[in-house]
Amino acid sequence: MNDFGFLSSTISVYYETGLDANDEPIINSSTYRNVSNNVTAAQIQAVAQALVGLTDYTYIETVKTTKDLVAQ
What we know:
By secondary structure, the chain is an alpha+beta fold. It has one helix spanning 41-53; strands spanning 3-19, 25-32, 58-71.
């Protein structure tokens, strides 16, 4: 039977930095690597909001991406 082996995780934090000429929101992101495999969603959310809280930007969302190896 095959199992998954954890390789790495990242989080991308998305935030609004202003409006363009058409009054559409400008969305930027910051990506952070080396996220622990056993971190909870609540922990990620708290860190992401704290990071954006250090800026004048509006927080939008956070995406966690995990890479796993399918072991044979």
